[in-house]
Automatic annotation (TrEMBL):
<dbReference type="GO" id="GO:0008270">
    <property type="term" value="F:zinc ion binding"/>
</dbReference>
<dbReference type="InterPro" id="IPR020460">
    <property type="entry name" value="Znf_C4-type_bac"/>
</dbReference>
<dbReference type="InterPro" id="IPR020458">
    <property type="entry name" value="Znf_DskA_TraR_CS"/>
</dbReference>
<keyword id="KW-0479">Metal-binding</keyword>
<feature type="compositionally biased region" description="Basic and acidic residues">
    <location>
        <begin position="1"/>
        <end position="11"/>
    </location>
</feature>
<feature type="region of interest" description="Disordered">
    <location>
        <begin position="1"/>
        <end position="35"/>
    </location>
</feature>
<feature type="compositionally biased region" description="Basic and acidic residues">
    <location>
        <begin position="20"/>
        <end position="31"/>
    </location>
</feature>
<protein>
    <submittedName>
        <fullName>Conjugal transfer protein TraR</fullName>
    </submittedName>
</protein>
<dbReference type="InterPro" id="IPR000962">
    <property type="entry name" value="Znf_DskA_TraR"/>
</dbReference>
<feature type="zinc finger region" description="dksA C4-type">
    <location>
        <begin position="77"/>
        <end position="101"/>
    </location>
</feature>
<feature type="domain" description="Zinc finger DksA/TraR C4-type">
    <location>
        <begin position="73"/>
        <end position="103"/>
    </location>
</feature>
<dbReference type="Pfam" id="PF01258">
    <property type="entry name" value="zf-dskA_traR"/>
</dbReference>
<keyword id="KW-0862">Zinc</keyword>
<keyword id="KW-0863">Zinc-finger</keyword>
Amino acid sequence: MQKLLELHAELTGKTPARIEPNRTDEGRVGGDEDEQPLNEMLQAIASNRNRNSDVVLQRVLKALGKLRQDPDSFGECEECGDEIPLGRLEAVPYVEFCVNCQGQKDAPKGGPTRKKLTDYT
Ligand SMILES: [Zn+2]
């Protein structure tokens, strides 16, 4: 699942195939005094914007783990076990549920149940 790996690399800012253990210490640019306010600013921006990306990353990691441990079950809905259509997997490589189950999970809880038009007749 190349797409999943690419997404993971994009989210973590790392390329899986390239490992540079000493990079953080040696390749540092700029002093700590200058970096600090910038980091705080970036974190403030990121805290809002990246919240969603963190969730995505968790799901990507989970999907990758699943892919490693049980490749056969990858691409199957975790809820009903149905095969998830390839188009959906390509759009959302870390998708866990089929359209039906996702729809049920996304449905508001406690509120009025949204029914099909035919249910009202
Ligand atoms: Zn399902």
